[in-house]
Amino acid sequence: MGEFAFIIHPVSGAKDIARKYPLLRILPEAVLEQLLKRVSPKPVSEITGIRSQTGAEARGWFVGCPLTPRQFLDLPEAFVLEKIVSAARMAQDLGAKVVGLGAMTAVVGDAGITVDKRVDIAVTTGNSYTVWTAVEGAKQAAALMGTEVSQAQVAVMGATGSIGQVCVRLLAEEAPSVTLIGRDEARLEGLAAGIDGKAEITHTTDPHSGLREADIIITVTSAVDTVVPGEALKPGAVVCDVARPRDVSKQVATQRPDVLVIEGGAVEVPGEVDFHLNFGFPPKTAYACMAETMILALEERYESYTLGRDLTVEQVREMAALAQKHGFKLAGFRSFEKQVTPEYIEGVRKAAARG
Length: 355
What we know:
It is built from 13 helices and 17 strands. It is an alpha/beta fold. It folds into two domains: 2-128 and 267-329, no CATH class; 131-265 and 332-354, NAD(P)-binding Rossmann-like Domain (Rossmann fold), CATH 3.40.50. The strands form four sheets. The protein has a six-stranded mixed sheet. The chain has a six-stranded parallel sheet with strand order 8-7-6-9-10-11. Helix 6 crosses helix 11 (288-299). The longest helix has 18 residues, at 77-94. The N and C termini lie far apart (54 Å). The model has no long low-confidence stretch (mean pLDDT 93).
């Protein structure tokens, strides 16, 4: 049986902790954050029931790294990395042979390379499968809105990040136009110069101009706050938000009923999986980064598969093939923790047509 662990943290701030410990709700956010700095990583739950369609099985653990997204970015890097390494070592002590880094733990420092050097088990960020599910999910959602990627203008926010770059490369093979959006002009220029494919590549540091004509948008920044300007979106646009914390605020969904916002990376896990933890997804559903760690465990392929910021298209396609082999698949569409129904999509289409 394959064995893995996955490191999680409160993605919506310290108040997430109050979901598990309700008495903490009375404390201000700043006080909770000071408490979190002093708390050591700990096991949160055991994951059971994962069974591949090949017959292989895996079990795992969620290990909590008690820092908020803002703390991951604002606290000294050495302090934050020590917390992540401690969580990975706890995973090792539990019996895991591969550990996945979730959300901000995959962003800090060198994106897992230091963690990998300091533990005796494999480490992965899960970004390979995250990319695949983001691109496939965006394309499928756009098709339901009546937009085919072969005729769409595409934009990628956070284009120069490890996930964003490979999203760009995959989409440039199919779309006629791809706009790269990021904060660093020089890095955008360098990325644009190295993109092969049929797409016309443009780039900008201004989200408003970059999003204005986009039919399909994938947003995957490492920002703490929401960064997608709802007023800039085109009626009928599809926005796939892969970032955690979210890049798209809930206000966009309420103020722009003519735009379809979906969460990227929701995956159905094979077997009768029980996470013994409510992280906002329906039963048997996980983030793609979690799923990649499970897939490596099912394969008993204990190698550090996705590390650092140099992710390749070949890695993404190989992980997608392994996911298919074991029976992982996209779990439909969700928007702000709610299932997206055909009726909802039809309502967005009608609102976009009114325009």
